[in-house]
Write a structure and sequence with these properties.
Low-confidence stretches: none
Number of strands: 0
Mean pLDDT: 93
Helix content: 55-70%
Oligomer: single chain
Order of helices and strands: HHHHHHHHHH
Radius of gyration: 17 Å
Shape: globular
Strand content: under 5%
Amino acid sequence: MMAALAPPLVAAWDGAWTALARAAPAESLRELLDRYAEPHRAYHTLQHLGECFATLEDVASLAERLDEVRLALWYHDAVYDTRAHDNEERSGALARAAVLSAGGGEEAAERVHALVLATKHTTAPAPRGDARLVVDVDLAILGAPPARFAEYEAQIRREYAWVPEAEFRARRQRVLRSFLERPSIYATTVLRRRLEPRARENLARSLDALAATSRA
């Protein structure tokens, strides 16, 4: 199982448990791998997780509790159903249960649960502490190079293939515009400096394309 994972993901899984439990629970990893391999996923897969941990590696020094940040990232899309509105809540519950079953303690379990809930990406209240880092890492895709951003957009469309085209365009425009309307997309200074300009370019370009398709 571990041999099938890319080395950065292996390190991220093992590192998530170093301060929480004596050993990483193999059964929890098996469950997560099954979830991230679900056939309806196109973006919210191990590819996304790998990109998250690649981003985190460069800014790991910003974390107050790096193990909990890693674990929250592993679990933040554990439940992904495009027809549901409680994915983060259910993912957070799985993360909390995993920490408790591994003997991680109630306080750590609640902190990890809160970090997962932060990836719901609401604008209020603004994330604080490690939640800022988890949210920024999750949103790093918005500041990806244009080719990867275009691939991401196509992956999202495949995940919402059941939504009629006109409705999808309208909903997607609302989502992307909500990020552009924020004073800043990223909360951490390092990732704001690194990703914000390109993220705004990507979002504006995508919105223009969606609007042009709507007019056609």
